[in-house]
Amino acid sequence: MVNSAPIKWFLSSFFSTAEMSKPMTNVSHKVVEVTPPIYNINPISPYWQLSAPFTVTAQATDELSGVAQVELRYRHSYDNLFDTPKELKWENFGWGVENLERPSQWYWDNFDAPRGDGYYEFYSIAVGSREEAPAEADARAGVDRVVPSSRVNPIDPYWQLTTPFTVTARASEESERGCQGRALVSL
């Protein structure tokens, strides 16, 4: 995400080297930063998170002043439709931790899916940036912590005299994802 508004900040006085204890009068230096910081949430992989908390990461850079802090915002949906007014509300998850080995990388290693299982969208904001929520999220993830169950129904009669014969099974999962990707394999 790129913030399009210029950021203007700090005004400081310079001190005379001859008299370090007295500020020089009528001397000031104003730094105007017109290049906005660049920041975004990295793709979350795998898309389906089977446990929580999990880690969300972001990249954030600023060529002049650096990035002091990055904030994670998220929204949640049970049906993967983010078009109703209630589900358009972005919530603040909190400040990220800067990766000291990679200064432009930030992370939240404790995203605990606060609204429960379902679909999540994410975006970030760098400190000093003022912006509205984006039209599109930076990253998406599904959270499904319910273990599915399945079983093969009894074969009746037990001894089958011809092939092929039919085997039936049941699969269930009490989550939003349902039983996607499950298949009965013939033996």
Mind explaining what this structure looks like?
With 187 residues, the protein is mainly β. The protein has two domains: 38-143, Immunoglobulin-like (Sandwich), CATH 2.60.40; 148-187, no CATH class. The protein has no helices and 13 strands. The protein has strands spanning 7-15, 23-33, 38-41, 48-49, 54-61, 70-77, 91-95, 97-98, 105-111, 118-126, 139-143, 149-152, 169-172. It has a five-stranded mixed β-sheet, with no helix packed on it. Strand 1 (7-15) and strand 2 form a beta hairpin. It is elongated, with a radius of gyration of 27 Å. Mean pLDDT is 76; it is low at 1-20.
What are the key terms here?
187 residues, mainly beta, Immunoglobulin-like, 2 domains, 0% helix, disordered N terminus
CATH architecture name of the largest domain: Sandwich
Q: H/E series, N to C? A: EEEEEEEEEEEEE
- Provide the helix percentage: under 10%
Name of the CATH class of the largest domain: Mainly Beta
Uncertain spans: 1-20
Largest beta-sheet characterization: 5 strands, mixed
Average pLDDT taken over every residue: 76
CATH fold descriptor of the largest domain: Immunoglobulin-like
Shape: elongated
Oligomer: single chain
Arrangement of strands in the largest sheet: 4-11-10-6-7
Please, how many helices? 0
How many strand units? 13
Number of domains: 2
Termini separation (Å)? Answer: 51 Å
Compile the SSE list and pairings.
Elements: E1 7-15, E2 23-33, E3 38-41, E4 48-49, E5 54-61, E6 70-77, E7 91-95, E8 97-98, E9 105-111, E10 118-126, E11 139-143, E12 149-152, E13 169-172
Parallel strand pairs: 4-11
Antiparallel strand pairs: 1-2, 3-5, 5-9, 6-7, 6-10, 8-9, 10-11, 12-13
